[in-house]
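Re: Re: token formats

Sure, here are both.
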Amino acid sequence: MKFNKVLTSEIDENFNNSLEMSYISRESGGYIAKNHNIFDTIPLNSINKFILRNALFGTAIYKFGDFKDKVMVISGVHGNELSSQRASLLLFEYLLNFPLDTSVYLIPFVAPNSTMNNTRRFNSKDLNRSTYIKGSLTNCILNTIKDLKIDAVADFHTTALNSNPGIESIFCSKEPSLESIKIAEHIASETGSKTIINDKAGFPFKGAVEDESNLEGIPAITCEVVSPFGSIKKGSIERSFLQMKSFLSYF
């Protein structure tokens, strides 16, 4: 995967950290502005316009900093889980100038087309159950994680009341990557989110980016905040952003 340097002139902002970008897929693009449930919450500054413009052409991935250690943050595996995707825009701006000693790879919109249509699925697939399926969008993300030799992954979602899990939480697993639990417990201690610990990655469900990454020996977690599917509950963006920052502070 070739990354291209992003110039300050492209987003009309000065920033301290190096910034590069590439695309994982060119077949997933979407016009996020069509989904007013998220678009109406986005300030149309030059940074957000840059991100939204890139989402038209597919699944964009951004690299902040250039260090030996590497982590990845993703959101939008389910296009109708909006709070975490909106929080990723806050994280993007935060990472432009926050002092880093770890490279951070950020995918704000995994499937912009699904976000545009405010739908859970992409190409009729639940991407949170498809990471092991060759050629699926999340399988392409997993391959990118392995190719880039990412050290840890955090996948950010939202959950509705009376759904699974239905509470603000962090999924992790004991095996095969025990560090998954250590990361989750760190975030829980800083945010008050509940840890949900599975004995083994990929059980009772398989196909999540978190599970498949852990099975590859790459510590991974899934963070959830509470908000109705397809809309944004007050305060949920800030809670997801807090989880994101706590994940990064572990390293």
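Second one below.
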Amino acid sequence: MRQDIDALYQDVIRYEAERRFQFDSGLTQTLDGFESYVYDCQRLDQSFIMKMTHTLRRSFDQIMGELEFVNYLADHGVPVPRAIRSANGHLVERIEVEHGHFLAYAYLKASGDHLGERQLMPEVICKWGALTGRIHALTRTLNPVCHHTEDITGTKTTTPASRAIFPAPKPGSWKKPITSTSVYTRYR
């Protein structure tokens, strides 16, 4: 975590985020996070992952783009944990601090375990490749609300999707996606 962001963070910020998402107080566990504060939270015996980052690191629109993409994948049958709305109906909650905002957002917690080296058998790798191909194919049909760009000077801009320079291609206008069989054959 960046030191300037870590200096702004206080537990009261997490408590406010928990309140806004109606998570059970006292049951939150801190998880390892690299660029965000990450928590395992509970609500009515259901598990969620809550993440918080500061606007010094990521903008509100960047987080919204991430959540829009994840929910788009879930809407199209990809087994990803869906982003959830707060009690106020927001996907992202802004918590004001002295220098900007902390942005809080949450997902349903995914079930399952991490894959170990012994589980990485050819059939698992094929399924993984097929899923990756499916996600790539879906990126072609996503029509995002906003596009985010950063020019070579580091200036970030947000452009409505209707004015994007490279709009999403029409469904069916891309090449046939790679299948798990072709992935396995190509990389075995």
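The CA atoms of residues 140 and 169 lie 6 Å apart. Residues 3-108 form a domain with the Phosphorylase Kinase; domain 1 fold (CATH 3.30.200.20).
- S.
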